[in-house]
Design a protein that fits this description.
73% of the residues lie in helices and 5% in strands. By secondary structure, the protein is mainly alpha-helical. Strands 1-2 form a two-stranded antiparallel ribbon. Helix 1 packs antiparallel against helix 2 and helix 1 packs across helix 3. 20% of the residues are buried.
């Protein structure tokens, strides 16, 4: 997928979620799922969701609840957990003390680390 195709895919997904049309959104995800790996689709969805947040935060919540498949959400969590983990370590938080990861890959944070993650 070249950069033009990528931009079109992101725009289509974002517009489908802005319109809150679950049928179009699910059909697009199914179409892209046949062309992309799960990790690539999760990256595509992550960028689309980030753009959606700029336009309509309520549509973002709707999309996560209605359109985005659970396996894609799980992959997005994996992708963002690693980046967040690294960011918190860079801020001086200690693995095993302030943050850790459970067997499911869920990031576990102290209250202080959780506050820092939101900033």
């Amino acid at each position: 997928m070249n950069s033009f195709d990528l931009e079109q895919a992101i725009s289509k997904l974002t517009m489908a979620m802005i319109s809150r049309n679950s049928e179009i959104g699910k059909d697009l995800i199914t179409f892209f799922r046949k062309q992309l790996t799960l990790q690539e689709l999760a990256g595509l969805m992550l960028i689309s969701l980030e753009r959606l947040l700029r336009f309509d935060a309520e549509a973002l919540l709707w999309a996560i609840d209605t359109v985005v498949p659970s396996e894609v959400l799980t992959e997005i969590r994996k992708m963002t957990s690693v980046a967040l983990y690294q960011r918190l370590i860079h801020k001086g938080f200690m693995p095993g003390k302030d943050l850790s990861v459970d067997l499911d890959g869920t990031l576990l944070l102290t209250q202080q680390a959780r506050k820092a993650a939101l900033c």
